[in-house]
């Protein structure tokens, strides 16, 4: 029986930015911004998305990754009850919900860190963090030293070899499942998390809820080290992300095709994206904005679990600076949809429907059919049937003859309904400039 994430299409929300929440958590009264986020659900469903990755969510001091309390929703966003209602509304719309699990580090206002600061050697939590040393002070003035994530001392690293820390985190996840009914976790900084911890996490969460999904943030490395039956179901496919934008900027589809072939063994399980809360917007990375159309066509039809980052459906731009990620995480209201709506929005909605209705895209085998610098065609298979995607990154229309890998007499473009004959096991198609086709092979 298939799992929900095998046909998943994600919508990624960074709620602190999307809702315009204050940058710093002053500890003031709760401001419920989930009522606003609730209004996004019909829009998300209209794009064909059946899952949401939302986070960070839990009480933190600033950007959300400096956690104060794993079991309380950030007061700048709302209450536990309002998030529970958000998840319930998502489930009513057949949308799964995955949250950020920030388990590599906490903020300095987390209870265990505060206890060490107050009680030093006598603190029962003195072994909850890596490298705790009472012989020196941290650069932030703490009366002890500790290991920090990438030298950011506002983010002290948890000691995931400590059984008490692991049990606390596992109990926290059970709290999330029991209280909010979440469907999965995206593990922040999974590339530096202890493998033993992730194996235990897989075992623990599998027992908590059927089809509970674990996805890790991994940038470099052999993804199969993390994605396997013992650890995570998926990781972020940064390799494909890079090849998609540079393959278009350089008019080099060989780069994308090489990447897909290299990752073919696990590619269908990887979380694919073209931008996120840490990366410049794809509309800012591309030299030609018209390339957004073939880019999203590839995102939805290549092997992987596609994800749209909020605002991506409107092609909004944004670049990070040396001091701020704010441009990547802008305030947008759902009322802005009417003025932001564009041709790309309609394409993404159509791609979402095509992905949902065609099981070839739910882990189906991949086969390359045609490859030049500027044109690229491949097939995805399911039970002897095939769907062919062909894209063109050139600024002019071009005619191509695509090999047909299965028997059939007609190819129907699922994007617009146009039909093409299959002649001598080839389909001759004129690919419009900076556009593509998705061809379903049929008999008669």
From TrEMBL:
Pfam families: Alpha-amylase (PF00128), Malt_amylase_C (PF16657). Gene3D superfamilies: Glycosidases, Golgi alpha-mannosidase II. One of its GO terms (biological process) is carbohydrate metabolic process. Residues 8-355 form the Glycosyl hydrolase family 13 catalytic domain. InterPro entries: GH, GH13_cat_dom, Glyco_hydro_b, Malt_amylase-like_C. Signal peptide: none annotated. One of its GO terms (molecular function) is hydrolase activity, acting on glycosyl bonds. Belongs to the glycosyl hydrolase 13 family. This is Glycosidase. It comes from Hungatella effluvii.
């Amino acid at each position: 029986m298939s799992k929900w994430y095998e046909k998943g299409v994600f919508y990624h929300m960074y709620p602190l930015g999307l809702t315009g929440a204050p940058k710093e958590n002053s500890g003031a009264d709760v401001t419920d911004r989930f009522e606003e986020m609730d209004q996004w659900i019909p829009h998300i469903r209209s794009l064909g998305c059946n899952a949401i990755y939302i986070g960070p969510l839990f009480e933190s001091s600033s950007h959300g990754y400096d956690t104060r309390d794993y079991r309380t929703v950030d007061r700048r966003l709302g209450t536990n009850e309002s998030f529970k209602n958000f998840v319930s509304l998502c489930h009513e719309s057949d949308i799964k919900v995955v949250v950020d699990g920030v388990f590599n580090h906490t903020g300095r206002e987390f209870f265990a860190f505060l206890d060490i600061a107050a009680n030093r050697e006598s603190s029962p939590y003195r072994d909850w963090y890596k490298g705790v040393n009472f012989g020196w002070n941290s650069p932030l003035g703490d009366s002890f030293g500790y290991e920090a994530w990438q030298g950011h001392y506002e983010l002290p690293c948890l000691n995931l070899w400590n059984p008490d820390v692991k049990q606390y985190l596992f109990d926290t996840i059970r709290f999330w499942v029991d209280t909010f009914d979440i469907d999965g976790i995206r593990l922040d900084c999974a590339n530096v998390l202890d493998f033993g911890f992730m194996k235990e996490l897989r075992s623990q969460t599998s027992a908590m809820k059927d089809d509970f999904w674990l996805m890790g943030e991994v940038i470099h490395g052999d993804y199969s080290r993390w994605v396997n039956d013992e650890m995570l179901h998926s990781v972020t496919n940064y390799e494909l992300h890079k090849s998609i934008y540079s393959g278009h900027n350089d008019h080099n589809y060989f780069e994308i095709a090489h990447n897909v072939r290299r990752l073919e063994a696990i590619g269908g399980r990887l979380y694919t994206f073209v931008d996120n809360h840490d990366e410049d917007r794809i509309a800012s990375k591309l030299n030609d904005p018209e390339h957004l159309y073939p880019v999203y066509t590839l995102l939805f039809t290549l092997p992987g679990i596609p994800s749209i980052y909020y605002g991506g459906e409107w092609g909004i731009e944004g670049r990070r600076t040396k001091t701020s990620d704010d441009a990547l995480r802008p305030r947008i209201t759902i009322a802005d949809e009417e003025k932001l709506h564009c041709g790309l929005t309609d394409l993404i909605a159509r791609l979402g429907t095509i992905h949902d209705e065609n099981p070839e895209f739910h882990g189906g085998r991949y086969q390359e059919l045609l490859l030049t610098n500027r044109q690229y065609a491949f097939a995805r298979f399911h039970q002897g049937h095939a769907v062919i995607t062909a894209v063109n990154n050139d600024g002019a229309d071009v005619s191509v003859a695509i090999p047909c890998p299965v028997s059939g007499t007609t190819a129907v473009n699922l994007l617009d309904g146009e039909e093409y004959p299959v002649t001598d096991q080839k389909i001759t198609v004129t690919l419009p400039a900076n556009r593509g086709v998705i061809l379903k092979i049929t008999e008669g």
